[in-house]
Amino acid sequence: MTGRTIVLDTDLALGAPGSDVDDGFALALALADPTLDLRLVTTVAGNTDVTSATTLSLRLLEMVGRPDIPVVRGAAGPLLDPARVRPADPAVLEHFGRGTPAPGYAPAAIADLVLARPGEVTVVAIGPLTNVATALVLDPRVAGAVREIVVMGGYFLGQMGDAGTSGEFNIWSDPDAAHVVLHSGAPLRFVGLDVTYRVHLDEARCRELAARDTAFARLAGEAALAWVEALRTRHPGSAVRGLVHLHDPLAVAAVTHPELLTWHDAAVEVVRDGVGRGITVADLRRREDPPPANARIALEVDTDAFLALLLAAL
């Protein structure tokens, strides 16, 4: 039986020196889960520049024996802020060169696949929403044809406590794109940072991964250990030291294992500029005359069940 068809829209950075690794874990889970059918990977600037994200995605797919899955390059920066376009990472270019993606442009590729298979395709967006928003604007029929859009993004119960990045990174990176997605009418589910912070690997588990006998597990474990060291340097004394948070793979798991999370309908808006850039405001519709819901948001997660699923896949 064919699994749930998905597109993974990602700012993958696994393999770049000193970069976060959870996006690579998400791609690995999407490939390993037999209930998922990954048909397309699209790349976007976020954790790294779009050139590096494309190269690293191609490299990872080749490593795990799936070079048949097309990788299509997408947005190099946010919709309305060309000053934030990031140049290619010279360290990635030096080590891996420039990968050769499939022809085309990510938003068009997303729209084409969704419209060719109405009601069947789920878009899993684990980076800034620039590509997804552009696809929805290119052809408004995408909103009604997509099965759902699952987003790793937002911070709904609480606050970031960081004036430099007031909102969760993916939304903060392109809040205008998030606004487009939230007002598109497409079926949306958001897995926010307040929930994903509850799932992580400690250093001992990273070492266990690095000692496994598959190429991906070794790469993931070694990159995770390097990320732990980078966090120690960047955030001395912080609670994030020694932990690899699994933000992106939780969004992938939510597609076919929604029971891992507790969901709530919400009316979500995003602050698009100023000191509150990227902050997501979720009205949980508990008053007598609530605003209409435009998304479902995750409130809780079964941490042990998710970790068991991910570690078995890796």
TrEMBL record:
Residue ranges constituting the Inosine/uridine-preferring nucleoside hydrolase domain according to the UniProt record: 6-307
Pfam families per UniProt: IU_nuc_hydro
GO BP of this protein: purine nucleoside catabolic process
The keyword Cell membrane belongs to this UniProt entry's keyword annotation: no
InterPro entries in UniProt: Inosine/uridine_hydrolase_dom, IUNH, Ribo_hydro-like
Molecular function, one GO term: purine nucleosidase activity
Source superkingdom: Bacteria
GO cellular component, one term: cytosol
Gene3D superfamilies: Ribonucleoside hydrolase-like
Keywords of the record: Glycosidase, Hydrolase
Protein name: Nucleoside hydrolase
Organism per entry: Phycicoccus endophyticus
